[in-house]
Amino acid sequence: MKLKEIASRLQCRLDGDGEIEIQRVAGIEQAGPGDLTFFANPRYGALLRATKASAVILGERDAGAPCAMLRSPLPYLSFAHAVELFSPRTPVVPGVHRLADVAATASIAADASIGPFVSIGDGARIGSRTIVFPHASIGAGARVGDDCVIHARVSIRERVVVGDRVVLQDGAVIGSDGFGFARRADGSHHKIPQAGGVVIEDDVEIGANSAVDRPAIGETRIGAGTKIDNLVQIAHGVHIGRHALLAAQVGIAGSTTIGDGVTLAGQVGVAGHLTIGDGVVATAQTGIPNSVDAGALVSGYPAIDNRDWLKASAVFRRLPELKKLLTELQKRLHELETQASRNGVR
Hints:
Radius of gyration: 28 Å
Largest sheet: 12 strands, mixed
Shape: flat
Strand order of the largest sheet: 6-9-12-15-18-23-26-29-32-35-37-38
Number of domains: 2
CATH class of the largest domain: Mainly Beta
């Protein structure tokens, strides 16, 4: 593809030879002739100056490069669109595979694609252009919207509602039973039926082997545009706002509300019945036992302001040294008090 065509499709300003043929998109260190790369982090300035790529996507005010340039106000987003241009697309044939098990009362759009060994229950509905890959299971009464991609071994349980343009990666489980038990008089546990609903709004992506539980009553809801990484646990009755980002191994306990635009980095844990305000950012491995005000940046366990946590962690590294110093000071103080006592000084 010629560089001028790429510039037009990405809506970038072209500086350089638009007739260059681009074969692929590559990282700035690996790129060579025929490659398009990108620059979005000032730390890689030396690599930009030394790149062998034929062209680079970079910011409108970034320093020049030794190759043709595509200037963009959002270079990382333009890079994402460039990757889309060069990504191979697996052909999908509309229709229901002969080895799929589809209930007679299920409704499937004519242009949807249902792969082999897919199970679709009574009254389920599958929208237009949605792709369901092999071994996925869609329960009775579930609704899946238009232009969704349901990857292999996904389980969408009964009555779950999935919006449009939702992507569910391999092994995700949507609508599994919430963890709810009532203690009997003898100390054993009685399972509380988990009969509530799960709603996944438009443009959500849920990563591989993540789970979104249904509650006993009410609903669990994932807001539009939210992106969830692999191995994430969303417990019963959780409400997540719009455009949130949850990295791998995040766990959110039951009945907690997560606001719009929240970012929870890897292995963040959030206790139940809390409210995490809009725009909160929790750094990796933060433990959140209490509600957090909107806009806060928190770290550590228990979660505190990130600046305070940085100061505390700096002290933590010095604890062995400080303990030794304290022991020496205590010993010296004891010696001085003993000497003063011998000299009759009080």
